Amino acid sequence: MSGIDKNSIRERVREDLLGVAIPNAFFHLDLDSFIPDFFGSEVAIERVIWSPEYRNAQVIFITPDDCLRELRERALRDGKIILVTSYGIRRGFFLLTEGIVLGNFKYASTLEGMEKVGVPVSLSEIVELGYQIDLLVTGAGAVCLNGLRIGKGHGFFDLEWAILMELKLVTVDTPVFCVVHDCQVVQDEIEGDEFDTACDVIFTPTRGIPVHLPNKPTLGIDWSRITDVTVQEIPCLNELKILQTKGGD
Fold this sequence. Notes:
single chain, alpha/beta, Rossmann fold, 8-stranded mixed sheet, 3-stranded mixed sheet, 11 helices, about 35% helix, about 15% strand, globular
């Protein structure tokens, strides 16, 4: 389908999404700045919770998207270990566990709360903990039926996947869930770039949509795409370079 790309899909979905999106305290409804929560997200999250992948998971990576706040809270109540990134990965990764948050699950599930009661962890500390991530859950601006996620255009989730792949914490078999409103699911199946990380299942308030053979990059970080500015904005990338250098010694 000529003329169909990520930007055109974002624009097509935007009006319908604005009709169901819940404003963010800082960004209001600036959908270029955040992935919003939406009316009915709790029902989509309930579908995630009933999945065998969630029930069997001990360690879950959950993105800091607004639509996943309730999932982060529920996972803490269920005794899961949660790895989450700060907004834009600027302050790296945080670890949330039942013991660390001392029962204040709702506050810990927010972006402000996770940085106050969670534990900041470096990449080397994550590796030393010996965790293997059992499940990743992310939001999206839109998602195609082939599992291709379309975010804000910054590529944060793809970068997070690449970092976790470099650390050998995920494999192509690690399930990836995407939680969105029904209006964010598009029928198009556009071909993504090689570094785009597709999801295994799309969860909405009305259904779970399995994806056949989703694309998951296996090469880790493509440093040719990483600028000095990006490394300055996301300091854990510099740590990753150091770890890779040590690993090559």
